[in-house]
Amino acid sequence: MTRTPIMAGNWKMNLDHLEAAHLVQSLAWNLTDVEHDYEAVEVVVVPPFTDIRTVQTLIEGDNLKIRYGAQDVSTHDEGAYTGEVSTSMLTKLGCSYVVVGHSERREYHGETNELVGRKAKKALDAGLTPIMCCGEALEVRKAGEHVSFVLAQIDAMLAGLSGEEVAKSVIAYEPIWAIGTGEVATPEDAQEVCGAIRGRIAELYDEGAAEAVRIQYGGSVKSSNVRDIMAKPDVDGALVGGASLKADEFTKIVTFTK
Ligand code: PEP
Predict the structure, then answer these.
(1) CA pair distance 16, 218, nearest whole angstrom
(2) Cα gap 145→51, rounded to integer Å
(3) Cα torsion for 87, 88, 91, 92, to the nearest 10°?
(4) Nearest-CA neighbor of 230 among 4, 71, 12?
(5) How far is the CA of 18 from the CAs of 45, 110, 155, 165, in angstroms?
(6) How far is the C-alpha of 201 from the C-alpha of 187, rounded, in Å?
(7) Where in the sequence numbering do the catalytic residues fall?
(8) Tell me: the pLDDT tens digits for 32-49?
(9) Which of 170, 217, 239, 250 for mutating ligand 1's site (highest number of atoms within 8 Å of CB)?
(10) In a 3-state reduction of DSSP, which class is residue 46?
(11) Is the pTM of this model over 0.70?
């Protein structure tokens, strides 16, 4: 099976809706210029909630093939949950993806693997594709326990999902020590954990699910390192933070094969 690489830009809490329009337009122009094949490498932007309507209007209005999603979602359908956003609100805005369990949500909002798994399930039930994040802190890596730590996260996050659901999901391996630090994991580090995740999915479900699930690497990905990371057999894409805020840099990342 050939998995379509997926390059997703997580804008985090950056860019207001006017800046969002500018970035998406610049990215679209760049990708048109280089005749980007969106079927060969999928392009996704993940703006803050307040930008999604603007991004949708632009993408639908100009018939762009860039996909988009949200950075988080509620496990509730509606009601007295101040500050939360439901899956149906996201699907009404044309979102295809939602990031769940980013390390910043885990660190600053106390999100657990169990909650992340429930968010992923909620997303799948609504027809959204979850991008489920996992990854170890520096102490865990230094202790040489990164593989077992990440596999325990995977076991817990996927506990409520079927093989078919996992097959259509995206998993992002993001070592916390490499996020926003400029400290990129080597391609071998990325492959070691992404390969172990795929192996675990084969054990938990079957080869079909393991072959189908797309696994991204994330952590200080840039145009200068993306090609070597993407050359690894179990790395199917990148979740990109800082470098996705610059249209020219993100264009180079997306077009890593050129
Ligand atoms: C991220 O936030 O998911 C991320 C990988 O950030 P950065 O690329 O800036 O390290």
Answers:
(1) 24
(2) 38
(3) -150
(4) 4
(5) 15, 31, 40, 35
(6) 21
(7) 102, 174
(8) 999 999 999 999 999 999
(9) 239
(10) strand
(11) yes
